[in-house]
Write a structure and sequence with these properties.
Number of helices: 12
Strand content: 5-15%
CATH class of the largest domain: Alpha Beta
Bound molecules: 3-methyl-2-oxobutanoic acid
Strand order of the largest sheet: 1-2-3-4-5-6-7-8
CATH superfamily of the largest domain: Phosphoenolpyruvate-binding domains
Order of helices and strands: HHEHEHHEHEHEHHEHEEHH
Low-confidence stretches: none
Largest sheet: 8 strands, parallel, barrel
């Protein structure tokens, strides 16, 4: 596929797989509203993920556990309206796919139908989840999988690097292969040692997308407010802030405040 052709049309699941085969790195960021969706799409990302991280960065919860299907639908539909080119993936929230295969199909199908997204993301690699992923892909729902630190399990895993022990690492490799065999089209690897991410990336033919998993993954994802420096006080070692929008926003709003208080706004140029 010519690069110019892909630049003109929507990215497909096949394009995502081909990027790995062609040795090209994939770029993934989160977005939660139409304004940022338009901007990140115009910046040329491959995948826009409507992460359930919105529980933390949009709603101010201390985890993703309280996020609901309807919140994901609301934000997913807004992002879909802003994205013309990138693949749009919506995170399935806690308890929307774990209870049974049937409820997973109904909830994932509901999210795809109501948002117009291209795919959904689910966390974990237990036998139950792998069976559910197989069922979902069989009915035509494309699945982005997620291993390592899976935030919906923060209460049991703790927020720490996963897969340091050999037995844990071997199990993660097996789970990654099982998710690929079940039909997942890509896999997020979050907070795992770089060598383990390298091993999983080499063993899979689907792309791995890292976050806090070192440089060997097929692509990288960051949470947009973190990348933009909007999420003050959140600075894990893996995070590179590409802007300081927190300062930009505070400076702009404080300049507006000064103008309003001094009578400098509205001025002649900006009144009706
Ligand atoms: O919810 C989210 O934003 C995510 C990414 C960190 C991968 O799952």
């Amino acid at each position: 596929m010519a690069e110019e052709e892909v630049a003109q049309r929507r990215v497909t699941i096949r394009d995502i797989g081909k990027l790995k085969k062609d040795g090209k790195k994939l770029v993934v960021v989160t977005a939660y509203d139409v304004l940022f969706a338009r901007l990140v799409d115009a910046a040329g990302v491959d995948i826009v993920l409507v992460g359930d991280s919105l529980g933390n960065v949009i709603n101010g919860f201390d985890s993703t556990i309280r996020v609901t299907v309807e919140q994901m639908v609301y934000h997913g539909a807004a992002v879909r309206r802003g994205v013309r080119r990138a693949l749009v993936v919506v995170d399935m929230p806690f308890l929307s796919y774990q209870a049974s295969e049937e409820s997973a199909v109904l909830n994932c199908g509901h999210v795809l139908q109501q948002t117009g997204a291209d795919a959904v993301k689910v966390e974990g690699g237990s036998e139950d989840i792998v069976r559910t992923v197989a069922k979902l892909t069989k009915v035509g729902i494309p699945i982005f999988a997620h291993l390592g630190f899976t935030p919906q399990s923060v209460r049991t895993l703790g927020m720490r690097v996963q897969g340091r022990e050999k037995s844990e690492a071997d199990r993660m490799v097996d789970e990654a292969k099982a998710l690929e065999d079940a039909g997942a089209f890509a896999l997020v690897l979050e907070l795992i040692p770089s060598e383990l991410a390298q091993r999983i990336t080499a063993e899979l033919s689907i792309p791995t997308i890292g976050i806090g998993a070192g440089p060997h993954c097929d692509g990288q994802v960051l949470v947009l407010p973190d990348l933009l420096g909007l999420n003050e006080g959140f600075s894990p070692k893996f995070l590179k802030k590409y802007a300081d929008l927190a300062t930009t926003v505070k400076d702009a709003v404080s300049a507006f405040g000064e103008d309003v208080r001094s009578g400098g706004y509205p001025d002649a140029e900006h009144s009706n």
